[in-house]
Amino acid sequence: MPAWPGGAGGALSLSFDNLGEAAEIELGALAAGAALGEHSTATRVLPSLLDALDTRDLAATFFVEGLNTELYPDALTAIAAAGHELGYHAWRHEQWGELSATEQAENLARGLSAFRSLGLPVAGLRPPGGGLGPGGLGVLREAGLRYGSPAGAGASAEGGVALLPFQWRHVDASCVLPPLAPVREQMSGSPDPLDPGAFLAYLEAELERLSHEGGFATIVLHLFMLDWLAEDRLGALLDRLSAAATRGDLWVAPCASVAEHVLFNREHFQAGTVLDPVSWSSTGN
């Protein structure tokens, strides 16, 4: 079993996906004439979340779209200044697995250049939809990224790039999106939507399992769904993570820190990653 810092039983990254209206623009869901740069996830949700994380001394990874370098540069700077990691989530949430390798490389080049112009480093990518697509890890490697976080299981090191996958059952959107009904069946035995309380209970059981069985996991919460989860439940989850980290049950760290640990100790991560073919897009993300 891979060794984690401090002798922790398992490693976990807390991550938050999406910011602003980038995904809505990509999906064609933004209301005609809607003003840009005033999205509630950036103006209201994010400041409150940063306070909640600071109170519990938790560092997270925020996978955000490159468009936010133009619409919300101050928000991105605030995330980094608070000690959190910024990861790339395509330019405006394009379905990564549906892009050609050339399109992926161009998308990455544009986005990373925009982040660099703000003095903000980016070490990894979480592909919208969950799939790496035609470019695979090669595109990430050529762009100088240190890790990718596609859908799958099992952290590994692949030719200088770490794979830190997420599982759909650890994603809040899996509780409500119709195409991800099969994931809900895995979680609860029923394809029916899960309520926030049931999702929180499921995550708490998963944290207990991770601390005993080991391995790596990442919780994926979306800024636009934090109102669905509700402040009290989010607080309870953050308290649970903080307590587990304090006791040493789990190493709770941003994805970039986990990636560096995996790459430095690659001999302990030879089992490889099993990628999940299910994606939001292919199921109908």
What would your notes on this structure say?
With 285 residues, this protein is an alpha/beta fold. The two termini are 32 Å apart. It has a domain at 5-63 and 140-272: TIM Barrel. Helix 8 runs parallel beside helix 10. It is built from 11 helices and 11 strands. Helices cover 41% and strands 14% of the residues. Strands 1, 2, 3, 9 and 10 form a 5-stranded parallel sheet that branches. It has helices spanning 22-27, 40-55, 68-71, 73-81, 101-117, 136-143, 181-188, 196-213, 226-229, 231-247, 255-264; strands at residues 10-17, 61-64, 85-88, 124-125, 147-148, 152-153, 156-158, 161-163, 216-222, 250-252, 274-275. Strand 4 (124-125), helix 6 and strand 5 (147-148) form a beta-alpha-beta unit.
Provide key terms for this protein:
alpha/beta; 41% helix; 285 residues; single chain; 11 helices
- CATH top level of the domain at 5-63 and 140-272? Alpha Beta
Gross geometry: globular
Roughly what percent helix?
Answer: 40-55%
Question: How many angstroms does the end-to-end distance come to?
Answer: 32 Å
CATH architecture of the domain at 5-63 and 140-272: Alpha-Beta Barrel
- How many E-type strands? 11
Which structural class do the helices and strands define? alpha/beta
| CATH H-tier superfamily of the domain at 5-63 and 140-272 | Glycoside hydrolase/deacetylase
CATH topology tier name of the domain at 5-63 and 140-272: TIM Barrel
- Counting H and I runs of at least 4 residues, what is the number of helices? 11
- Measured by DSSP, the beta-strand proportion falls in 5-15%
Which blocks of ≥5 consecutive residues have pLDDT under 50? none
Query: Mind describing the biggest β-sheet?
Result: 5 strands, parallel
Q: How large, in whole angstroms, is the Cα Rg? A: 18 Å
| Mean pLDDT metric | 94
Q: Which sequence of SSEs, written as H and E, runs from N to C? A: EHHEHHEHEHEEEEHHEHHEHE
